[in-house]
């Protein structure tokens, strides 16, 4: 699926409304309390990659984080901008495919990535984390060989693969579980310091 087709697909979904994507994910909240807050008690600089309506970005910004959000959907970024203005929150917003984002080395203390999978992003994500920075991610994975997770013809994430994609991170938490006919992985990794 081309970038333009993806953009149109997500714009339509956000126009129709995805209320489930306006509240922070429970995994995000629990890992923030367990790993992020103790590591960054005074907040820091975060990237919400493929951030959609900004459910995690808004939550972080309310707690003092300086947050950048990248999403392919112009509709999502417009809605997020309105929400941020209503709550008097400042966010750095960019409409772009995550694969086109220009990652700056060692810029972020925290990168959040939920339900967007592109193997080519992981080396860039690791590079963009400051030493001891954290990656929080949650995504779908292929749970069994007889279930076809690959709707767009992509090669899906498989069980126990994620740590191999981020060799520069120390795994702090990884849980894989079956959800209906697919799997999900919840992951927290810390960049190995220098």
What this model shows, in words?
The protein is of the alpha/beta class and 194 residues long. The chain has one domain (3-17, 24-191): Rossmann fold (3-Layer(aba) Sandwich). The protein is 31% helix and 29% strand. The chain has six helices and seven strands; from the N terminus they run ααβαβαββαβαββ. The chain has a seven-stranded mixed beta sheet. α3 links the parallel β1 and β2. The longest helix is centred in the first third of the chain and has 14 residues, at 3-16. The chain is globular, with a radius of gyration of 16 Å. It starts with a helix and ends with a strand.
Q: What descriptors fit this protein?
A:
single chain; 194 residues; alpha/beta; Rossmann fold
Structural class: alpha/beta
CATH superfamily: Vaccinia Virus protein VP39
CATH fold name, please? Rossmann fold
What is the residue-mean pLDDT, rounded to a whole number? 89
Can you name the CATH architecture?
Answer: 3-Layer(aba) Sandwich
Shape: globular
Residue fraction in strands:
25-35%
The total count of strands amounts to 7
Low-pLDDT segments: 149-153
**What strand order characterises the main sheet?**
3-2-1-4-5-7-6
Strand/helix succession: HHEHEHEEHEHEE
Cα gyration radius (Å): 16 Å
CATH class value? Alpha Beta
How many strands, what sense, and barrel or not for the largest sheet? 7 strands, mixed
Number of distinct helices: 6
The level of helicity is 25-40%
Provide the domain count.
1
In whole angstroms, the N-to-C terminal distance is: 39 Å
């Amino acid at each position: 699926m081309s970038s333009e087709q993806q953009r149109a697909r997500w714009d339509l979904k956000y126009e129709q409304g995805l209320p489930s994507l306006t509240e922070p994910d429970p995994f995000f909240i629990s890992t923030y309390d367990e790993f992020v807050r103790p590591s960054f008690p005074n907040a820091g600089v975060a990237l919400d990659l493929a951030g959609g309506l900004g459910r995690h970005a808004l939550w972080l910004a309310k707690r003092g984080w300086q947050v950048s959000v990248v999403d392919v959907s112009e509709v999502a970024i417009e809605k997020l901008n309105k929400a941020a203005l209503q709550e008097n929150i400042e966010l750095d917003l960019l409409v772009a495919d995550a694969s086109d984002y220009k990652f700056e080395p060692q810029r972020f203390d925290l990168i959040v990535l939920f339900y967007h999978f592109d193997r080519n992003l992981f080396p860039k994500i690791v590079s963009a984390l400051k030493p001891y920075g954290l990656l929080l991610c949650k995504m779908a994975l292929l749970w069994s060989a007889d279930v076809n997770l690959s709707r767009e013809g992509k090669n899906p994430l498989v069980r126990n693969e994620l740590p191999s994609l981020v060799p520069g991170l120390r795994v702090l938490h990884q849980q894989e579980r079956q959800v209906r006919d697919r799997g999900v992985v919840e992951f927290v990794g810390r960049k190995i310091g220098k």
